[in-house]
Amino acid sequence: MRLLLPAGTTETALIDGISAAGAAPELMEHTPSADVEILEYGEPVMSPVTPVSPNGCPTPAAVTRAVREVVGFDASVIDAGLTQSTAAPTVDLDAGPGGDIRESVAVPDAKATFDRAYDYGASLPDDRLVIGETVPGGTTTALGVLTALGEPAGVSSSLPENPIERKRRVVDEALAASDLEPGDCENAPLEAIEAVGDPVQPTVTGIAAGALESGTEVTLAGGTQMIAVAALLRHAGIDAPLSIATTSFVADEQGSQLADACERFDCELTVTDPGFDERDHVAMARYCAGEAKEGVAMGGALSLVPEGRMGEVRDRLEAVCARLGIESEDAGEPGAENDETGSEPAEGSRGP
Amino acid sequence: MRLLLPAGTTETALIDGISAAGAAPELMEHTPSADVEILEYGEPVMSPVTPVSPNGCPTPAAVTRAVREVVGFDASVIDAGLTQSTAAPTVDLDAGPGGDIRESVAVPDAKATFDRAYDYGASLPDDRLVIGETVPGGTTTALGVLTALGEPAGVSSSLPENPIERKRRVVDEALAASDLEPGDCENAPLEAIEAVGDPVQPTVTGIAAGALESGTEVTLAGGTQMIAVAALLRHAGIDAPLSIATTSFVADEQGSQLADACERFDCELTVTDPGFDERDHVAMARYCAGEAKEGVAMGGALSLVPEGRMGEVRDRLEAVCARLGIESEDAGEPGAENDETGSEPAEGSRGP
Q1: Which residues in chain A touch residue B343, judged by CB atoms under 8 angstroms apart?
Q2: Which residues of B touch A127 (CB under 8 A)?
Q3: Which domains are seen in chain B, by residue range?
Q4: What are the tens digits of pLDDT across the range A23-51?
Q5: Which of A112, A145, B191, B213 gets the most CB atoms within 10 Å of its CB?
Q6: Does A48 touch chain B (CB under 8 A)?
Q7: Whether B297 contacts B229, CB under 8 Å
Q8: Secondary structure (DSSP) of B202-220
């Protein structure tokens, strides 16, 4: 099993009030670069920003890393259009950053990126891939491609109050700028991405398509952005079995829409509740209040936690939060304590 | 603990008869790109070449990967001047490929690369780093910098018969091309690298310097190339404790020279014998015959194997060799058997 994390950017994220991924718009493009450092090293390393909301809600990368430190899994990051350098190792598929979907073309190299991602996905020897994403503004571009494909679409949000109407207005404007009506891109997924998507979409879709067609099991790790990827795969004619693993936070917000979408795109759905309500810790409280919800493969990572070990994940999350400068009044000690193990995964990776 | 693998190239490798890293000169520049794919995925993925000698001797990357599959350790690859793309994730420190040391300047960006590597090494949260290298021609550039620094130098070879005299002639020519006499670069390590080194040297030296000065324990994983790095560090005025971990194959070839060099540069030396003579397998037989000997952090990886588990490493090496297309008459079965586990590390990285 290998977790893959395509990380990229889209200028769509800069549109007022559609994303919470990053405190200020000008810092948001640093978020995916910081997320992948957290996944690789356990904390930001060269990144000038630490993705924690003003309320003390850490990026989902903190949760994915916490799971990695408990169960241990291989992870590889793919540069799917980063604008800011990162100290994390990344696979270079030569994908560029995405433009504002309100321009006529949002992802000019969508087809070339899909092709390179397909070859990469087809070439991996792993028997199973869990594919996530980190791209601020990604739920809006997900709504964009779903609408262009003609799929009934609701999308999630990293904000407690989902600005879905604002996103719909942005998508309407985006489709108009590309001379498209909803449904005009049916069975033309790459055209949908090129017009109103983001560069992480052809990367995830391409890797998944190449992997599925070479017999590799694929789990899409995420919420409504992965519903969009599933739709893109089905509109590309890929009918192999597919599963989606997301968090209870997305499931609670989406209600029956999520299961309906999975049924429509023939995806097996796994929802995992990390039990954050069992802890009195600011970071977990923010997730329970509906902040962040999902991202950076959080739901997929949580689905890898064996029965009975979620408590260890919560312990480790406190340690990761302490590294990110989040100390909960009530939870300082365990955090500090766990932090002694630094950024080492839990499995035998210290050597003698 | 994290294993770091700077991977790069130098045109010096194209000089006739100085390197065995790669069957043909024109394919040699693919070797480091293939090595890092083997470390990350367990076999070459997008690389057009598989680094196995005509005699069936696999790249040391196969051994380092075998150890990783047994004991498990974090590993990050640094692009230290690759010319060929790789499917492995790499940290981008903006280092360019190295030129032929017989030109006046071999590594034009040595200082800038050292500075970026220093910042990277200083920023890592790990308590201990094991730093290796993969750069065809690296023992010749090691002889180059050692000579420029004025250090008595013998270097190892990936060939059973070390073409040391040929290397000395190349280095003499290289120094002359840079208007240097042996010893002219005493206490000026970056000038030595710029004139007669390779881009992996400022990367390894910079990361080690930054890590040591920020209190991180550093083990240099390699043979005479790491002796050269130790010399560069000491000539840079870094006097922190340092250790070198290499293979018994290098130690057997170098005899007392190795211990003498470690004493001169105040390095603790660890030599590990993988017990390849206990197996009747072509790959292990080639190492016992003196091919390859070291590289891709092999000695450092072997030093991480706990007492009594080297047999598992040999079993796993047979599986890795099978993936590289090396089947030993006597060892086909175990290889095939082990291969069922694909490229998964041994520790619990499958998830449920």
Answers
A1: 125-126
A2: 342, 344
A3: 2-336 (3.40.50.10210)
A4: 577 789 999 999 999 999 999 999 999 99
A5: A145
A6: no
A7: no
A8: HHHHHHHHHHHHTT-EEEE
